Amino acid sequence: MRPLAPKGGNDNVYTPKPVARKIISHFKPTGKICEPCKGGGAFTDLLDCDWFEIDEGRDFLNASGHWDWIVTNPPWSKIRPFLQKAMEVSDNIIFLCLVNAFWLKARQEDMKKAGFGIKEILMIDTPPKPWPQTGFSLGAVLIVKGWNGPITIST
Hints:
This protein is of the alpha/beta class.
């Protein structure tokens, strides 16, 4: 079985700039935006936004405030706590991650309880190594407060 997150507990898998550009161009987030996992800065280079990065002493999981949009590539081993926090502080959330992460029962229940639903999944081609080559589909998943309609799949 292949691991979903890199071995050794290091979830620092930085978003390639072309992937960040595709996501921003597609969803066009506006208003007050937050990038909870700045990493190499692919999203923050394209957006006027607040940011957090645990490696720089700024932990999103301890953040307060409210943002119109959360746009991030969260640590895959910590998607659930990042999703829970994002739903507390924003109404529109985009997570770049393995799409199957959202079909786990606990995450579905967390979203339902918080009043969120998946509105769209923008499919993303898996970047070349060093990006993890898992064999699972990668996507930018848009989760919206109050959404209970169909899920659109875009390419």
